[in-house]
Amino acid sequence: MILANAAVTGSHGYAQRIVTTAGHEFAADEPERRGGTNTGAAPFDLMLGSLGACTAITLRMYADRKAWKLGTIGVELRLLKEGEGPLRIERKISVSEEIDEDQQSKLLEIADKTPVSKALGAGVPIQTVFDTSTQPAR
Question: How far apart are the first and last CA of the chain?
């Protein structure tokens, strides 16, 4: 079963066009200080955005089922690396409505179980192959 599908293309420089199967388009690039043209979000920014969006969507789904009023859900994320240690993500969740400690605790538990959280935490294996069908004939 395919859970997601995207195609990425770029003909020069670092700027890339991303198109999903559902027809959504967005751009990725590197900032100018890293040799890019800053015409799109950097790849790690996109990864954090995906995690934040998945977190907010999942929390909203859960709260809707429980009839909890959360108001605006905010998710702030930072990708950190300290010295030679591994990368880690810091995630801070906020809601605009008042909720009690039990609700906060449950939402933190749910946040760790979101699909993107689980995929990143598990270190999803990546299988890479080269598509030779698009190369010009020799």
Answer: 36
